[in-house]
Each structure stands twice: as structure tokens, then as C-alpha cells.
Design goal:
With about 70 residues, this protein is of the alpha+beta class. The chain is about 15% helix and about 30% strand. It contains one helix and seven strands; from the N terminus they run βββββββα. The structure holds zinc ion.
Length: about 70
């Protein structure tokens, strides 16, 4: 059975890698591997039901965390 290790993504060009490293002079952001159907795989919808971002929640959480902030949950 494969271990759940996640992956790294470049927040500038979205290149992905299995190993940590730099891309575009920035540290790539670590993302957990998520199970199919996980809420964080979906785009962020606000309380009014409007789309807040086309980016999925896992990406926003990872980028905010890399910036030292916690992504606000609904
Ligand atoms: Zn890049």
C-alpha cells in the first residue's frame, strides 16, 4: 500500500513535484494527498453560495499556510 505523502506545487506556474524544492525562486508549497470526494478538492463557495475562487480549497489553504497565515474557514 502506498503511503499518503502528498506533493509539492509551484504557486506561480502550478508545476508539481514529489520532492520539495524551489521553482521560480520560491519554495514549492506542500499539499496533502486528499481522498476522492474531499470537500477541499472543490472550489471555494461563500455563505451566499457564490464562487469565491476557482482555485480548490486545498490549493488556497496550502498557499496561505506557506505565507504563514491560516485560510479563513466559512
Ligand atoms: Zn514554477
Amino acid at each position: 500500500m502506498r503511503e499518503c505523502i502528498g506533493f509539492y506545487i509551484c504557486p506561480v506556474c502550478f508545476a508539481v513535484s514529489e520532492e520539495a524544492g524551489e521553482h521560480h525562486d520560491r519554495q514549492m508549497v506542500h499539499c496533502d494527498e486528499l481522498p476522492v470526494g474531499d470537500e477541499r478538492l472543490k472550489p471555494v463557495i461563500n455563505k451566499e453560495g457564490d464562487l469565491e475562487s476557482h482555485a480548490p480549497r486545498w490549493f488556497l489553504e496550502a498557499v496561505w499556510e506557506a505565507a504563514g497565515m491560516e485560510f479563513p474557514s466559512k
